[in-house]
Write a structure and sequence with these properties.
Elements: E1 4-5, E2 10-12, H1 18-23, H2 26-58, H3 70-74, E3 91-96, H4 99-106, E4 112-116, H5 125-139, E5 144-147, E6 152-155, E7 162-166, E8 173-179, E9 182-185, H6 186-205, E10 213-216, H7 222-239, E11 247-252, H8 255-258, H9 261-267, E12 272-277, H10 279-289, H11 309-325, E13 329-334, H12 343-363, E14 367-370, H13 376-384, H14 407-411, H15 420-438, E15 444-446, E16 449-451, H16 453-468, E17 472-475, E18 478-481, H17 484-502, H18 504-509, H19 512-524, H20 532-536, E19 548-549
Parallel strand pairs: 1-19, 3-4, 3-14, 4-7, 7-10, 10-11, 11-12, 12-13, 13-14
Antiparallel strand pairs: 2-8, 5-6, 8-9, 15-16, 17-18
Helix pairs in contact: 2-6, 2-7, 5-6, 7-9, 10-16, 12-13, 15-16, 15-17, 15-19, 16-19, 17-19
Length: 551
């Protein structure tokens, strides 16, 4: 029997595979263990601070600008100069770290591909380790994929997108790797293994002396950015590369973080390449932050777009903050996917994407996200035709008008209506996403949109909020109050609809009934779970007999 060769204090409980062993080397695991041992206490403190903030919000409080850090917001300072290799980020594509996806995304014509270990990936042992093998091969430009069903071999073009990697959030463990008797911190595993194996090749072949590049998710406070900065500095020292080589874009996707954007950039000022509007998670966070506020029941999620006042202010303030500090202000996700069997509907969807991206570029964003390669060309056309031939708008779109945005602007209730169809859609999307996630898929096409954990989270917390406070819905012109009994009936009916839509064979093979039970439980629990995936994670952990040894 083969074993992983591990350093003292480290145990691997995932399946042994000779390819995985090339990633899980003794030296790489020693590097990850060093990160965990140095920063575990800081991470625990940051998560405890989140819990304390949650108590304040649940007691009637609201997030706001911190008076103690006003000097950072009001001082004139800049982040380090943007590396030339990533000056143009006009359109970025995102997706999980799957082999075929990586090749298609790097070849898509996008300027950047964000390879995702977070919301677009179900973090099974197989997915994670294959993802690291795939990224190593991508950085080495040796990655290929043989699609046997199509008898087609995929390989990289001569010109490819710049690779960014998104590790998991601070809150997620990695239960297959045990360090000093405790599960590893998931994001330190993701970052550590990728950085250790790829920093040298990435800097020389892709980053023109800079890199690797990262996206950082789910932060709520600048103290969490400080931990990442310290992680980066330790990694740079260990690798013997220049301070400031590693660069990262932070997703502003929690409501508390919008009040900390200057402070987050300040903590990462030597390692920052901007902020991004993670708008779906941001809506999820708005509901979660105000979960104890019955006066903040949101309308149907499809009505909460970037034209809502609080969302527009969030975007405008992010642009102002980033450009004042000399870095990119990235726009939000276009989740549409091509509707191949209906050209008219496809063109209508593309027109919505164009309008959304035109709004972003005219507001001052330097680039934006797309979920599908079919969107790259039309989005690129919108951005390039509105940026006067420049790689970005950092120097040309100051947005000083956004200085007038207040705390009240950033938390203003969105306007709209709540409907029974909204409750049904939330339920249908949530159950189907969770069923896919449980079977190893984290990025799921549903109703012509590419859904990931963020949209499933909105569905879950909005249902919970409506049930908790007995929201009144408009159903076929009749006012209906949401009750646990009504919701149970909706779950039952939507599972039957899912069965009809996907077909009996797929439904039987899938985990839809199990997903329905989990989703219903999370929507009706007295205390709202912080994350859908955190609660469900143990259902995809598979421990194997002893697969590691100190040789």
């Amino acid at each position: 029997m083969s074993f992983y060769d591990v350093p003292d204090g480290v145990e691997i409980r995932g399946r042994y595979d000779h390819q995985f062993a090339q990633i899980l080397t003794r030296d790489a695991l020693q590097f990850v263990a060093g990160l965990q041992r140095e920063f575990q206490g800081q991470v625990r403190f940051a998560l405890e601070c989140r819990r304390e903030a949650k108590k304040r919000y649940n007691s009637g409080g609201s997030p706001g600008f911190d008076p103690a850090t006003r000097f950072i917001r009001e001082s004139n300072w800049k982040c380090a100069t943007v590396p030339p290799a990533v000056a143009d980020r006009s359109v970025e594509i995102t997706g999980p770290v799957e082999r075929k996806m990586i090749i298609n995304a790097l070849n898509s014509g996008a300027k950047v591909f964000m390879a995702d270990f977070e919301d677009a990936l179900s973090p099974s042992w197989e997915n994670l380790m294959k993802g690291h093998v795939n990224l190593r091969d991508a950085v080495n430009q040796t990655i290929t994929f043989h699609d046997q069903a199509r008898n087609r071999v995929y390989k990289l073009n001569d010109t490819i997108a710049k690779l960014f990697v998104r590790p998991r959030g601070w809150h997620l463990p990695e239960a297959h790797i045990i360090i000093d008797g405790e599960p590893a911190i998931g994001c330190l595993v993701d970052f550590g293994l990728y950085f250790y194996h790829n920093h040298a090749m990435y800097r020389s072949a892709h980053g023109a002396g800079f890199g690797p590049f990262f996206y950082l998710p789910k932060m709520e406070n600048s103290r969490e950015a400080r931990i990442w900065n310290n992680v980066f500095e330790r990694a740079e020292r260990t690798a013997g590369i220049e301070r400031g080589s590693i660069r990262a874009t932070v997703l502003i996707e929690t409501l508390p973080a919008v009040f900390q954007m200057d402070e987050i950039l300040y903590e990462l000022r030597d390692h920052s390449v901007g902020l991004n509007c993670g708008r779906w998670d941001y809506i999820f966070s708005y509901i979660k932050t105000f979960q104890a506020h019955p006066d903040r029941l949101l309308p149907d999620r499809v009505q909460v777009g970037m034209t809502q006042h609080f969302m527009r202010c969030y975007s405008d303030l992010l642009i102002r903050t980033c450009h004042r500090r000399g870095v990119h202000a990235m726009g939000g996700m276009a989740a549409q996917i091509p509707i191949r069997d209906n050209p008219a509907a496809n063109e209508a969807a593309l027109e919505l994407v164009r309008k959304d991206k035109l709004r972003e570029v005219r507001a001052g964003h330097d680039g934006t996200w797309a979920a599908h390669p079919g969107l790259i060309k039309p989005i690129l056309e919108v951005f390039t035709s509105n940026m006067a031939g420049k790689a970005n708008q950092i120097q040309t779109a100051a947005r000083e008008d956004a200085d007038a945005i207040t705390e009240e602007d950033l938390v203003q209730m969105p306007r709209g209506t709540r409907s029974l169809e909204g409750l049904r859609l939330n339920t249908r999307v949530g159950i189907q996403y969770l069923a896919a996630w449980l079977t190893g898929t984290g990025s799921v096409p549903l109703y012509n949109l590419m859904e990931d954990a963020a949209t499933a989270e909105i569905s879950r917390v909005q249902n919970w909020q409506w049930i908790k406070y007995g929201a009144v819905l408009n159903g076929d012109g009749v006012k209906i109050r949401v009750t646990p009994e009504l919701f149970a009936k909706v779950v039952e009916e939507e599972i039957e609809r899912i069965k009809r839509e996907v077909g009996l064979e797929k439904f039987t093979r899938g985990r839809y009934q199990e997903a329905g039970k989990i989703f219903a439980k999370q929507c009706t629990t007295p205390e709202l779970d912080d994350f859908l995936t955190l609660d469900a994670y143990n259902l995809i952990v598979v421990h194997h007999p002893k697969t590691s040894a100190r040789l």
